[in-house]
Amino acid sequence: MKILIKNIAEIYSSDSKVKKNQFILIEDQIIKKIDSMAKIDQIKDYDHLIDAQDKIVLPGFINTHTHVAMTMMRGYADDMPLDRWLQDKIWPFESKINSDDIYWGTALGLIEMIESGTTAFSDMYFSMDRVADLVEKSGLRACLAEGLIEVNDGQKGFDKALDFALNYNQRAEGRISTMLAPHAPYTCGKDYLQKIKRAAQEHDLGVHIHLSESKKEVNDFLNKYQKSPVKYLDDFNFFDNHILAAHCVHLEPGDLEILKKNNIQVAHNPISNGKLANGIAPISDYLKNNINVSIGTDGVSSNNNLDMLEEAKMASYLQKIKYEDPTAMDTQTILEILTINGATALNLDNLALIKPGYKADLQLIDIKKDSFFYPHHNNLSNLFYAAKASSVETVIVNGKIIMEDRELKTLDKEKIYYEAEKRSLAISKQIK
Amino acid sequence: MKILIKNIAEIYSSDSKVKKNQFILIEDQIIKKIDSMAKIDQIKDYDHLIDAQDKIVLPGFINTHTHVAMTMMRGYADDMPLDRWLQDKIWPFESKINSDDIYWGTALGLIEMIESGTTAFSDMYFSMDRVADLVEKSGLRACLAEGLIEVNDGQKGFDKALDFALNYNQRAEGRISTMLAPHAPYTCGKDYLQKIKRAAQEHDLGVHIHLSESKKEVNDFLNKYQKSPVKYLDDFNFFDNHILAAHCVHLEPGDLEILKKNNIQVAHNPISNGKLANGIAPISDYLKNNINVSIGTDGVSSNNNLDMLEEAKMASYLQKIKYEDPTAMDTQTILEILTINGATALNLDNLALIKPGYKADLQLIDIKKDSFFYPHHNNLSNLFYAAKASSVETVIVNGKIIMEDRELKTLDKEKIYYEAEKRSLAISKQIK
Predict the structure, then answer these.
(1) What is the pLDDT of residues A118-144, one digit of tens each?
(2) Same structural domain for residues B162 and B290?
(3) Which residues in A lie closer than 8 A to residue B329 (C-beta atoms)?
(4) Under DSSP, is residue B7 helix (H, G, I), strand (E, B) or coil?
(5) What is the number of domains present in chain A?
């Protein structure tokens, strides 16, 4: 399958300056050629033509930390103290979810991700075989991992998670990759974490974990072990693997050096850290130290959506607030952390640049339809600081169009709305 | 003109609990009747029918601090140190703007405001007679004031501003109100401020001013006068008038009591305070002290849009961060600060509640179209924490439909896009 995208107003890719008036030729799963429209006549052979007049092209966004099935908890619990939020709302709800609920809750989240320009995501939850079915069906790219909480999952959960990671890796034409995912150092004991670490090393799997999310977590470790969670994990060489660490909001002295030394991949969740009042992560310090930072939305229950453009603006403005510096995190940096840094975080090669030889995961954004794109001084600024996801017109993943002119090509929206709504409201009724 | 809105899924108004399955009858400029759909048969006489099936109704949002014409500077200057942002970008651009530019730049902003559910705004800028023409034409409600910077405007500017305030008050079927607007205590001297204060008292006009926006402003006052800007103004009784004070980010001890004692109307600009790295205003403390807080977007050049839903989420999550408390600013509080508190800030009666006898300024929001409204556990949470402005379907101001099913009824979008773009790019070329 060859797709020709012509008349592209501008291409943004973090490896190069903006290119104007271009075409892109996609062949099967790969970006084959990018050139000026002056040379379009060279391209005679293609199966599908997209006219990108008045549109810009960017790599698809990569959401590196989420729990997509939790989309079914949107609006179910807000503005609550963390302990009541978890104990009275989130945990009781989760205790009643079955694998079909996870399927439909995830499907609802995938609609939102596609419609807001996300082409790949890293998910940590349960019944990941059902999530994998949806990744297969939707056409998205994903890094999937069964979440492990020792007291709930134990040896059986570990075996299931490892089995999933080994069996599902590289499925769906290579769009699925897998990791192991111990929930956090405070929900998994040292022995359990070491077992996970050894399995990850043996099978060359990455590890996805929550780390230093709240002050309480850090203080609990300081009280119990006289060291931070970061130091605690480092002391038994947990970081020897490829580590995707979500949050990393609260650091103790020496922690940053540990993250840097171990090439930890930080998944920053600015909106979740806001909703749950955890604070603002020291992202500018990470970036200055060449620690790779990407962005996650976290689950919808702590956000309340999966919109990477909202994260982009929030991330930038929160860094400006934290460092009292309006130059903190500019649009070029945002582009990197939403795209190429996400690919690095998920350990995926040849992804997230608009470049020949790279995977064809990209989005077309309409810059003439909506008032928030006018005037056109700087389309990247307009996209990250002014626009809404509704300007995302067309989404291509692995060389396949999964949304065109805002019409979803792989998912049945009405059916998913119906099932996710029905199941979610039924569960909440059981709890009340 | 009588408009009947039937089948409303839910009505949100900060004076009452959510009402389900309702109709609203609007007669001329006023909400005449609200009742259950069971009683719709009583209503035989109407000119226009709106079916609000799958829609919720809220009062229109009130943006209490903006400079709408600056929409023409969107994306023109971002991520820069404040002094270079002003001296190299904003001021040179503003020095080249004429009143036609202001007209078209403002028109561009009005499109965005209507499309995101804003029905009233408080504007401080130049050539306000041209802005008033657009308020008249667009059907929006606005509180307008000529901004005064002493060194630029002097006596002549003061005369013009007062003349405008007296002549334009209550124009456009009463949709226009006016204030006097000295820019800030650091750009207007004490004598000039006292002259403005006396004129405001004499003519019963409110005063719109920037106050305690940056640390630098406060520190400069402490160095020069050994008191904060708030204390400085209070010491010559500047606050005797109805005062709309934008920002109020940085307080010195005693300032909060002065704001409270003088019933200062705080216009909170969370996103602008983020972009310009000014910090997070102590809004929770204001609310605890019964200081009236409303929300402004500020100008687009320091935002970069006019979307009150973005402000809502940012405001709530920033307060949670500042106070390390996830219960800080819940959805009911957000509803108040976006609606009724805005009416109070602008000194407008019978506005911003969905209540018989109140002005018919309201919006219909589609809760079934977009994935981010699913599932429907809590539509107010979904609106403020998950939705995008694209869900706003219909906007009514003063009993007149100005957008219906997302079609603008009063403004020519294509013409405005064309003019605003052309003028804005031409100005930026002159500067380079």
Answers:
(1) 999 999 999 999 999 999 999 999 999
(2) yes
(3) 79
(4) strand
(5) 2
